[in-house]
Amino acid sequence: MFHVFSDLEGIRIAVEMERRGESFYRHAARVSKSKETVEMLLSLANEEQYHRAEFERLYAAEAALGASEAAYDDETNAYLTAIAAEVVFPQGLMALRDEGFENPEAVLMHAIASEKDSILFYTEMQQRTADDHARSVFSEIVRQERGHLFRLQRRLAQLAKE
């Protein structure tokens, strides 16, 4: 069976993804023994916390406007379910077990992969909604996630130079 998606549910999932990302980074910071990596992880957690607050604001505004809770068709629900299953650290801390919690590059590469998956999910939501206002909300979420992806890639490049 698959998850049932609607415009409002898609925005709620955006909030939850940020919550999961923040939790992932905070847990990883508790496990890491590298001061540099801990600082980076806590910084990433704070960015996720900021995005969560932004997306909660978008969700509240959409709910107040009466955003559609009508389910998408079965094919769309199945497709979005498949994408969502891969978004935001699906394996939790175990995903970094092999690379190590002390390796800032591995953490950033993992974060970059997660952001790419998130962008794919929200782009699909943006393309599949029939509501123009919801489309603009998903567009804003994609814009913010792309900005976050850019910052993560820039951090990774800086580490490579060091």
Summarize this structure as a short list of keywords or feature phrases.
162 residues; mainly alpha; 5 helices; 75% helix; 0% strand
Structural write-up:
- There is one protein chain.
- By secondary structure, the chain is mainly alpha-helical.
- Helix content is 75%, strand content 0%.
- The chain contains 5 helices and no strands.
- It has helices spanning 7-31, 35-65, 74-84, 104-128, 132-161.
- It is elongated.
- The termini are far apart.
| Biggest sheet overview | none
Average residue pLDDT:
82
Structural class of the helices, strands and pairings?
mainly alpha
End-to-end gap: 48 Å
Counted beta strands = 0
Helical residue percent?
Answer: over 70%
Shape estimate: elongated
Strand content: under 5%
* Helix-strand topology string: HHHHH
| Uncertain regions spanning at least 5 consecutive residues | none
Rg, nearest Å: 16 Å
Topology:
Blueprint: H1 7-31, H2 35-65, H3 74-84, H4 104-128, H5 132-161
Helix pairs in contact: 1-2, 1-5, 2-5, 3-4, 4-5
